[in-house]
Specification:
188 residues, alpha+beta, Ubiquitin-like (UB roll), DNA polymerase, domain 1, 2 domains, 5-stranded mixed β-sheet, 6 helices, 37% helix
């Protein structure tokens, strides 16, 4: 049976063993090698991808479960490494060996989509990926920086929108400064 799904916004198809792990299909058949194989039991998170927007450990996910779904890999998170999490990771030089980092970044991106201003408790609860180099302090700092970068980008976007479409940004509809011509009943 052929399994059809989308990877990073592009259609994909796999005609092979339905129980093949999605990680191997993405890496070996589609050539997207950013997601890594770590433990093979779904514990470490190096293989984390987003499935319909939620993080999933793809080393234990059979490809048949991807049928009709949207898969996002680290390569699809942003075109130019401009996602706030990626910017923060680079700015704070988070990786040591780097092997787990694609999975960490995918998990952190999802965390920020759910908690735009995460507390340390949010990070501890949501970030279950493992890092053998123990860069957890830098990971936490990068998540906080990414949240700050995302807020700044959102604020800049809102400011630009206000300058471009002042009436829409303020909640008004249409062209608020245009008025219908007044009629003068006495002029007739």
């Amino acid at each position: 049976m052929s399994v059809k799904f989308s990877v990073n916004g592009k259609p994909a198809e796999f005609d092979g063993a339905e129980d093949a792990p999605l990680l191997w299909v993405v890496r070996e058949h589609l050539g997207l090698t950013g997601s890594k194989f770590g433990c093979g039991i779904g514990a470490c998170g190096a293989c984390t991808m987003h499935i319909d927007g939620a993080p999933a450990r793809t080393c234990i996910m059979p490809v048949m479960m991807a049928q009709g779904r949207q898969i996002t890999t680290i390569e699809g998170l942003s075109r130019n490494t401009d996602h706030p999490v990626q910017k923060a990771w680079i700015a704070l030089d988070v990786p040591q060996c780097g092997y787990c980092q694609s999975g960490m970044i995918m998990a952190a991106a999802h965390l920020l989509s759910r908690h735009p201003e995460p507390t340390d408790a949010d990070i501890d609860r949501e970030m279950t990926n493992l890092c053998r180099c123990a860069t957890y302090v830098r990971i936490r700092a990068a998540i906080h920086l990414a949240a700050k970068l995302a807020r700044a980008a959102h604020s800049a976007s809102e400011d630009a929108r206000e300058r471009t479409f002042p009436s829409e940004a303020s909640g008004q509809r249409g062209h608020s400064k245009l008025r219908a011509p007044e009629t003068n009943a006495k002029a007739k």
